[in-house]
Structures are given as structure tokens and as C-alpha cells.
Design brief:
By secondary structure, chain A is mainly alpha-helical. Chain A is about 75% helix and about 0% strand. Chain A has 13 helices and no strands. In chain A, α3 packs across α12. Chain B has 17 helices and two strands. The chains are: A mainly alpha, B mainly alpha. Chain A: Keywords: Cell membrane, Membrane, Transmembrane, Transmembrane helix, Transport.
């Protein structure tokens, strides 16, 4: 059955509109990254660079501005973001299963506690955490940073996944148990595939949080070879005015992995996973 | 941890299962929860207590009444708080309080409406859907520092914004237009967040429900109000709640887009940060505590007014699960009623 023509036209128009609004500033960012300096500051700017150059990307990647090579920042950022996604996803799924599947005392208290965590202003935690990490000699380490990011990603993850776990009918698990599947097998074979859309949504969230976070990274990581990408961005500001070419090149390089990550996982958010499993 | 003991009382309305199962599940639940609990206690719980203690102290490096040099922190009780609420700084505080509230109410309202609209569009089948879906999340994926810069470019005196409205507005100077600029940039950035979550919720609604509604002749608006909205309500409420909590702690966007010490856009978080960066940890912690209390009150009110079933729904899981399993026929009945 096909939708009426006006509907299809309206949908496509809405899609194009949404696309333009979301993508235009980003388009400008990428375009500027390829423009030579003369074109960036031209009073009659063109949407596309007339003489595209890779010079700005070159100066970002070889580290001539920031001091340390781009790849060092990139590796740190990737390690931090991936560890945050994996650890917080796993812990949140466990906790969400407990909250959605079992009745126990303080269950509601736990859920409220998670919300309270989400209410704490980050600025309030920077100083005490700095002192604590210093005491534990984890100040200049990515592990400390990962622990902090996991902590901030967890409340949202648990709350989000709770609904998805609850939506999986218990009958499915019981059927699997009747067929002789153990708890682990049920978890990986029944629960995990069915909550995958929720897991994808939360992992996109935690990845972006960890990838973009600036305040904690800036406060905790003092060595340049430990620093993450958002810190690198800072090197292009100030002193002799903003160097827009490299800023935009660095911003582009900072943004691309996030978009790549999203494109990679968004296919898993296909509809009907649950609907298909619960039919009848 | 005490969560190991299951309380039969809370179980009663839900189901009549045997007791040993309940107790066993309580223990298992504690095992499943403990890693999360541990991380949160270390990363958030302990530092909060530290900050609360800090808010009762002031750094004093001056001379005391007898002319002796006093070093280190001095206990001042609630003085930091009273200074903020009634002292010389109270003007800045109440102004920031108003700004924070304004951004929260207006911002979250616009973001929610746009986010739901975006999710509905993305949920439809049309060519290039995956592309639009990916592009819609680009704004959210971009680091705030970068997006604030992008918007600074849009809002500069001879920028795109002025060209489009045909007026000369100095967006990034003091005034109501600065608030508007911040709101536009924030909406651009975070409406996709609401959109993504609502989309995930939409994907859990079986297509049969809509087919049944269509067969029964329900219109688009009616279907949305009676089927879509109730079914995405749990996801939507969580999304809105988290947006509320986030925007109340609004910091980096106004900071980078407009700048510090601008009355029009100064938020409570910015005040706290400003104090901390001037090494006045006591007042900074006091600001943060006040902000925290404000956020807590708003969240409590939100959950009480709208989301009574945010937790309530979880409490009667069995009912919900049964409802979800039978969602098709029931929703169809609702649509025809």
C-alpha cells in the first residue's frame, strides 16, 4: 500500500528541511576547513572553496600548532570513548535488568538516586574529584577519566534501558528457560537482541558524552600526550586571533568519528525487532 | 547492602509468586546493581559530600582581629549561602536564577515539540531516511564548543541571521536577542536528542496497532493523540526529564556563544564556575548546592505532576508487560471507542 502523493511530498519536504537546518552549519565548517585563508576572510564568501587546500588539515595532523600529533589525541579520545561506551553499557544493562525484572526493597529509591546524580552540576564536582583523583594518583590517567565518564553516563543508561527491558515479555524468557537455556544464555540470546535498539540509543549518548567532554578532561589531564581531542581544539584559539582554518579542520576531524559511529550503529535500530518477536 | 532482602509487602499487588523466588531475585538484583552503585558512590556520592563541606568554608589569607596572619580555610557556617541570597551578590544570583528558569521552560518546550516532530518524520518510510536520520544527529554530535562557534558565526553582525531577517541585530551583545540566540543554538543542538529517544520509542510500537486504527478509520491526528502519544509517553517523559536536568545546569553554550559576565544570559552554573575559577571554592560550592536544590525541586515536581507513572509503571511491571503484549487489540479498541 502506498501513501498518497501529497503525503510523500510533504514527508520528503520535511526531511529535506530538517536536513538543511541540521547540516548547514556543519557544511560551512567542513567547507571552511578546505578554504585557503584569503577565502575564509573574504567579504563575499562562497559556499564551496574555490581553491581547496589541505593545508589546515596538515597543520592539525602534524601537530605543528598543538605540539603533539593529532593521532595521539585521537587515540586517547577513542580509548576513553570506547571504554566508556562498553563499561557503562554493560553496567547499565545489568542494573536496568535488576530494576525492571526484580522486586526488591529500595528499588524506587535506587531509581530516584540515579535521577539525583543527573541533577548534580558538573562544576560542583570538578574540584572535589580533582582532589580525590590526586590522592589516588589517578590524576593524569585515562582510567580516572573513564571512571568519571562512566559515572555520568550510567544514570541515563539505566533509566533508558529499564523501559526496553520491561518491554521484553517475560514469557519469552520463560519459554527459553523451558527449552533448557541457562541464565547467561537467556541474557545473551533473548534479552540482548531485544533491547539492542535501547542499547544503541544509550551507547550513542555515552559515546558522544565521552568524546566531546571538555571540562573534566581539561582539569584532570595535564600531560599533552594524555589529552583528548576537545583539549586539542583549545590550542587554536587566542594569542594572535582565532585561526579559523585550522579550527574548522580540527572541528571536522573531531566530528567525523562521531558521525561514523552513528552511521555504524543506526542500522541496528531497525523497527520491528520486538514487534517481530512478540507476534501472536 | 540491604537491598538483598526482598520486602513481601511491595510484591503483593503485583503477583502471587512463591516467596523463595522473590528472595532469590532480591539477591540477584543486588548483584546486578552493585557495580553501578559502586561507580556512582565513588564518582558522584563522595565528591558531593566533599562539596557540601566545602560550601561552609571560606578561604582566608588575611589578618585576623589580632593582626596574626591566618592561612587556610575558615569555617563560616551558612554565611556563603546568606551572602548569595541576600548579600551584595544577590542581584547577580536572582538574575541568573531568572535566566536559568527562562531557558529551561522555553527551551525544553520548543525542543520537545520539535523533537517529537523530527522523530515522527524519521519514523516514516521515505527515500533517504537513513541519511536524514544521520544528519539530524550531527548537531547533537558536535562538541558544544564547536557548535557555539558555528552559531557565533551565524549571529555575527554581517552574518547569515541578519541577512535572513534583513535587520541589523547585534545578537551577541546584551539584551533579549542574546537570549533568543542562545535558545536557537540550544534547540538546534538538542532537539535531535529528544528526537532520537522518541524514535527509539516509536520503533517499539507494533505496526499492527496503526493498521488496526486505519482499518477503523481513525485520522492522522486522532491516531497520534490516542495511540502514538500514550505509547511513547514513558520514553518522552524520560527524555524531557533529562533535558530539564541538563538545561538547568546550562553552561558552555552561553559561555562560548555570548561570553561570561553578560547579565542577559548568565546562568547559575556560570556563576558557580566563575567563583571556582577565581579560587573562591566556598561560594562556588554554595552556588552549586543551591543550583542542585533547585534542580531537585523541579525534578520532583515534574515526576509528581507528570511522571507519577515513571516509577509507578515500573512498580506494576507485570501489568505493563501484559498490556504491552496485548497492546494491539487494546489500542485498536481505544481508537474505535
Amino acid at each position: 500500500m502506498r501513501a498518497p502523493l501529497w503525503r510523500r511530498v510533504a514527508l520528503n519536504a520535511a526531511g529535506v528541511g530538517v536536513f538543511l537546518v541540521s547540516a548547514f552549519p556543519v557544511f560551512w565548517m567542513i567547507s571552511t576547513a578546505f578554504k585557503p585563508n584569503g577565502e575564509i576572510f573574504s567579504s563575499t564568501p562562497h559556499p564551496l572553496p574555490e581553491h581547496p587546500t589541505l593545508r589546515h588539515f596538515g597543520s592539525v595532523v602534524d601537530g605543528s600548532v598543538a605540539g603533539v600529533s593529532f593521532w595521539s589525541y585521537f587515540a586517547n579520545s577513542a580509548a576513553v570513548a570506547i571504554a566508556t561506551v562498553v563499561i557503562s553499557g554493560l553496567l547499565a544493562l545489568l542494573a536496568a535488568t535488576a530494576v525492571a525484572r526484580f522486586r526488591f526493597r529500595f528499588r524506587t529509591t535506587f531509581l530516584v538516586l540515579l535521577l539525583v546524580v543527573q541533577m548534580v552540576p558538573c562544576e560542583a564536582l570538578v574540584i572535589p574529584l580533582f582532589i580525590d583523583l590526586k590522592r589516588m594518583e589517578m590524576l593524569n590517567s585515562l582510567v580516572g577519566l573513564i571512571a568519571v565518564y562512566v559515572g555520568f553516563a550510567l544514570p541515563f543508561g539505566v533509566w533508558m534501558l529499564r523501559g526496553f527491558v520491561a518491554a521484553v515479555p517475560k514469557e519469552l524468557e520463560e519459554a527459553a528457560a523451558l527449552d533448557g537455556a541457562g541464565p547467561l544464555r537467556i541474557f545473551f540470546r533473548v534479552l540482548l537482541p531485544l533491547v539492542a535498539p535501547g542499547l544503541v540509543a544509550t551507547s550513542v549518548f555515552s559515546f558522544i558524552t565521552a568524546w566531546n567532554e571538555f571540562l573534566f578532561a581539561y582539569t584532570f589531564l595535564k600531560d599533552q600526550d594524555k589529552a583528548t581531542l576537545p583539549i586539542m581544539l583549545q590550542f587554536f584559539f587566542g594569542r594572535s586571533g582565532n585561526d579559523w582554518g585550522p579550527i574548522m579542520a580540527a572541528s571536522t576531524l573531531l566530528t567525523l568519528p562521531v558521525i561514523a559511529f552513528f552511521l555504524l550503529v543506526q542500522r541496528r535500530m531497525v523497527s520491528g525487532l520486538v514487534a517481530g518477536a512478540v507476534k501472536g | 547492602m540491604t537491598t538483598t532482602t526482598a520486602e513481601p509487602g511491595t510484591v503483593a499487588p503485583v503477583k502471587q509468586k512463591n516467596k523463595s523466588d522473590v528472595q532469590g531475585s532480591g539477591r540477584l538484583a543486588a548483584v546486578l546493581l552493585s557495580p553501578t552503585f559502586l561507580v556512582l558512590a565513588l564518582v558522584v556520592g563522595y565528591p558531593i559530600i566533599d562539596a557540601l563541606r566545602e560550601s561552609m568554608y571560606q578561604r582566608s589569607n588575611g589578618l585576623d582581629a589580632n593582626g596574626f596572619v591566618v592561612k587556610g580555610d575558615k569555617f563560616v557556617g551558612l554565611k556563603n549561602y546568606t551572602d548569595i541570597l541576600t548579600g551584595d551578590a544577590s542581584h547577580a544570583f536572582w538574575n541568573a536564577f531568572y535566566n536559568t528558569t527562562f531557558f529551561t521552560v522555553v527551551g525544553v518546550l520548543i525542543e520537545t515539540i520539535l523533537g517529537v516532530a523530527m522523530a515522527l518524520v524519521m519514523h516514516q518510510a521515505f527515500r533517504g531516511r537513513g541519511f536524514v536520520r544521520a544528519s539530524i544527529l550531527v548537531p547533537w554530535a558536535i562538541p558544544t564548543a564547536v557548535s557555539a562557534l558555528l552559531w557565533r558565526w551565524v549571529f555575527q553582525a554581517d552574518g547569515v541571521a541578519n541577512a535572513m531577517i534583513g535587520h541589523q541585530v547585534l545578537w551577541t551583545t546584551e539584551g533579549f536577542h542574546a537570549k533568543v540566540a542562545v535558545l536557537i543554538a540550544d534547540t538546534w543542538k538538542t532537539a535531535p536528542f529528544v528526537g532520537l529517544l522518541v524514535l527509539a520509542g516509536l520503533q517499539l510500537i507494533p505496526a499492527e496497532v496503526y493498521e488496526a486504527a486505519k482499518v477503523d478509520g481513525a485520522g492522522t491526528w486522532y491516531t497520534f493523540r490516542k495511540i502514538t502519544l500514550p505509547l511513547i509517553k514513558p520514553v518522552l517523559l524520560v527524555a524531557v526529564l533529562f533535558r530539564l536536568l541538563d538545561v538547568l545546569r546550562f553552561f558552555d553554550l552561553p559561555f562560548v556563544l555570548i561570553g561570561a559576565h553578560k547579565d542577559s544570559v548568565e546562568t547559575l552554573s556560570m556563576l558557580a564556575y566563575d567563583e571556582a575559577s577565581n579560587l573562591r571554592y566556598g561560594p562556588a560550592a554554595a552556588y552549586a548546592t543551591i543550583l542542585f536544590v533547585y534542580v531537585a525541586v523541579v525534578a520532583y515536581a515534574f515526576v509528581k505532576l507528570l511522571g507519577a507513572d515513571i516509577i509507578g509503571e515500573a512498580r506494576s511491571r507485570k501489568k505493563t508487560a501484559a498490556k504491552r503484549a496485548k497492546k494491539g487489540p487494546r489500542a485498536a479498541r481505544e481508537a474505535t471507542a
